[in-house]
């Protein structure tokens, strides 16, 4: 066989090095779903933050204001996952590692803020006015956030993506915070138990630190 007909060893190695397995269509579909859910979460967090901040200022509710402002940190996790599954980064393991650690950091940004709000409320003993808008918004979040959070946990497991699962955990924490604020608003309106909301906030802050550590280690996707 002539030299022209028989490729050399270097050519074989070069060909093998450039070959890539075809992406799994089901995996790519799940990645698109994760990105879509993150866009939905980002839109919801924007509305939730703006409306919640308005309602909190009108009612003078530190818990509601803190919950609304925490939406910015939770929205950051959505932006990170959108970045992760856009363009060439979709199939990049290094992008997944960076996104996973960035989501973990967003947990650690959320925890001290929630804790500071809770401690300040315990210290001042602030008593918020009744707010129908705040109650309606937090009740809606209790419906929307668990659905998004659980869906992202399932997608995170399918994709092996700690970033996606971590964002789902943040959605669930948002629901826990909404429950704490809602209970605080209702109970305070009925019996003036103003201290219930900040105590629940401290519990959520502790959970956020623990979940951030798990996300950093990549444990969320399992």
Word description of this protein:
The protein has 222 residues and is mainly α. The chain has one domain: Cation efflux protein transmembrane domain (Alpha-lytic protease prodomain-like, Up-down Bundle), CATH 1.20.1510. 81% of the residues lie in helices and 0% in strands. The protein contains 7 helices and no strands. It has helices spanning 9-18, 25-59, 62-84, 93-124, 132-159, 162-191, 196-217. It is elongated, with a radius of gyration of 22 Å. The relative contact order is 0.14. Belongs to the TMEM163 family. It is found in: Cytoplasmic vesicle, Secretory vesicle, Synaptic vesicle membrane; Early endosome membrane. Residues 39-211 form the Cation efflux protein transmembrane domain. It holds the Pfam family Cation_efflux.
SSE blueprint:
Layout: H1 9-18, H2 25-59, H3 62-84, H4 93-124, H5 132-159, H6 162-191, H7 196-217
Helix pairs in contact: 2-3, 2-5, 3-4, 3-6, 4-6, 4-7, 5-6, 6-7
Describe the structure using short key phrases.
222 residues, mainly alpha, Alpha-lytic protease prodomain-like, 7 helices
Summarize the structure in short.
The chain has 222 residues and is mainly alpha-helical. It has seven helices and no strands. The protein is elongated.
Helix content: over 70%
End-to-end span in angstroms?
A: 53 Å
Biggest sheet, in brief? Answer: none
Helix and strand string, N-terminal first?
HHHHHHH
Q: What's the number of structural domains?
A: 1
Mean pLDDT: 79
Using the 3D structure, state the CATH architecture: Up-down Bundle
Transmembrane segments: 37-58, 64-82, 102-119, 131-151, 172-194
Family: Belongs to the TMEM163 family.
Domain Cation efflux protein transmembrane: 39-211
Subcellular location: Cytoplasmic vesicle, Secretory vesicle, Synaptic vesicle membrane; Early endosome membrane
């Amino acid at each position: 066989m002539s030299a022209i007909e028989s490729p050399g060893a270097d050519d074989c190695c070069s060909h093998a090095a450039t070959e890539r397995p075809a992406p799994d269509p089901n995996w790519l579909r799940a990645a698109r779903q994760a990105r879509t859910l993150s866009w939905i979460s980002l839109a919801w967090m924007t509305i939730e933050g703006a409306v919640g901040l308005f309602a909190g200022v009108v009612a003078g509710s530190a818990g509601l204001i803190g919950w609304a402002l925490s939406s910015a940190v939770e929205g950051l996790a959505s932006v990170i996952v959108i970045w992760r599954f856009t363009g060439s980064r979709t199939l990049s393991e290094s992008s997944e590692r960076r996104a996973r650690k960035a989501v973990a950091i967003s947990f650690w940004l959320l925890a001290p803020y929630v804790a500071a709000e809770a401690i300040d409320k315990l210290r001042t003993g602030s008593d918020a006015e009744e707010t129908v808008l705040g109650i309606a918004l937090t009740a809606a979040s209790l419906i929307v956030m668990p659905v998004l959070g659980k869906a992202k946990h399932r997608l995170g497991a399918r994709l092996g993506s700690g970033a996606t699962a971590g964002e789902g955990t943040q959605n669930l924490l948002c629901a826990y915070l909404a429950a704490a604020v809602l209970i605080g608003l209702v109970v305070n309106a009925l019996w003036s138990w103003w201290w219930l909301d900040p105590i629940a906030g401290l519990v959520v802050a502790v959970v956020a630190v623990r979940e951030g550590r798990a996300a950093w280690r990549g444990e969320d996707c399992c």
